[in-house]
Design a protein that fits this description.
single chain; alpha/beta; five-stranded mixed beta sheet; 402 residues; two-stranded antiparallel sheet; hydrolase
């Protein structure tokens, strides 16, 4: 992650289910499985009752309700608790008590933090839902973020070659592209800034103050590389060139696996797919631009678009799940914001790794960035152009043969 640039001063629902108003009176919950006994569950029923008393709607099924509020199944939630438990137990600030004067359990702390990230609601609103104060929500959320950033980073790593080969096989089966390792896209995390910190550095083309997040994703929409911390005023092309990912690829330390021999007996190296806002490079394939494109070019574009949309879909899912990234963030600490973004990406990957499904109601139906015009990067590497032509010819020959 780059250093922050200093600013200048100045599961599915059944057909008959749906969102129903939660009832104040609930039947006794089923007994917990042995592996979960001894964990704190009192906070969940207190939270649910408080939500019902407020008159707000929630899924009637308890498992779906839990997933609605915290984005995870209870089993995945308990897994996340296991990651941060040692940190949350070993360093409990004296202020972490609820209105009943008891120290907050690890489960309740994790619930508070995950609800804050999932809803994007204010600290006051989240605190009221759990019977704690605003400062407690702030402390708990940051402690959770620090612990996850340190202890869950194995959920966001560049794949080993065995996994890369699996990704390439899956993407070729799905889109026909040989040696494709994923898609890339970027999004703006919008925020407000105090007047003293506001500057053109952070003002993006849509006149919002924002911070960039770029993600490279695999066939399962899992993030395998991210870069964040850079101002939204940058172009997508410059963001890519400033990233560690770019430097590793250029140095032959990423996307450097076995080449694929094309139908024309030429080599196709590993690559990712991106939109025309990115430069055309030997390891970064962008679409053909212009009018009167040939049939093979249009065929390449269609297949390349399907691959690059992996990045777009992953970012939309990320922002739909963790709404703190989708709403306008009120005066965030720009030194801490990259950590918040990273932890949301880690949680996104954990859901995929544990095969948790999102409820359709929490997913964003639209593109992750609305109100932004498309950028078009004119930078073309001759070797990138030659590689794109080789792939296009390979697709034409392969389809003619079949």
């Amino acid at each position: 992650m780059p250093p922050i640039k200093k600013s200048k001063k100045g599961k599915r629902k059944g057909k008959e289910s749906g969102k129903l108003k939660a009832s104040k009176s609930r039947s006794a919950p089923p007994p917990l499985p042995p592996e979960l006994r001894g964990l704190d569950t009192e906070w969940w029923y207190a939270f649910l009752n408080k939500h019902a008393e407020s008159g707000q709607s929630a899924p009637s099924d308890e498992g779906e309700a839990f997933r609605y509020f915290f984005r995870t199944s209870r089993q995945t939630f308990d897994y996340i608790c296991s990651i941060v438990r040692d940190d949350l137990i070993s360093r409990p600030p004296s202020g972490l008590i609820n209105i009943e004067g008891r120290l907050l359990s690890v489960e309740k702390q994790v619930a508070i933090a995950m609800r804050r990230l999932a809803s994007g609601d204010s600290q006051v609103s989240v605190g009221a839902a759990f019977g704690v104060g605003q400062s407690t929500v702030s402390q708990v959320t940051w402690r959770f973020i620090e612990s996850m950033e340190d202890r869950a980073k194995h959920h966001l790593v560049w794949p080993n070659q065995e996994r890369i080969e699996e990704i390439k096989a899956n993407l070729e089966a799905a889109f026909g592209l040989p040696n494709c390792c994923g898609g890339v896209d970027a999004t703006h995390i919008i925020m407000t800034l105090p007047a003293v910190e506001s500057s053109e550095d952070w003002c993006d083309p849509a006149k919002n103050y924002s911070m960039f997040l770029q993600g490279v994703v695999d066939d399962d929409l899992r993030f395998i590389d991210i870069v964040t911390g850079w101002p939204g005023s940058m172009t997508f092309s410059r963001l890519m060139r400033c990233s560690g990912f770019f430097k590793l690829c250029e140095a032959g330390k990423r996307l450097d696996g076995p080449v694929r021999v094309s139908a024309g007996n030429t080599e196709i190296r590993e690559f990712i797919a991106g939109d025309s806002c990115y430069p055309l490079l030997p390891w970064l394939m962008t679409p053909y631009e212009g009018k009167n494109l040939s049939g093979p070019m249009l065929n390449f574009n269609a297949r390349q678009k399907a691959a690059r949309m992996l990045g777009t879909r992953a970012l939309a899912r990320l922002k739909g799940s963790w709404r703190i990234l989708h709403k306008v963030m009120w005066r965030p600490d720009k030194n801490k914001l990259p950590s918040i973004i990273l932890v949301c990406c880690l949680l996104h990957n954990i859901l995929i790794d544990r095969k948790d499904e999102l409820l359709p109601s929490v997913q964003l139906p639209d593109h992750h960035d609305t109100g932004y015009t498309e950028e078009n990067c004119e930078q073309t590497d001759p070797n990138g152009k030659a590689m794109r032509d080789i792939i296009t010819e390979h697709l034409q020959s392969h389809e003619a043969y079949n």
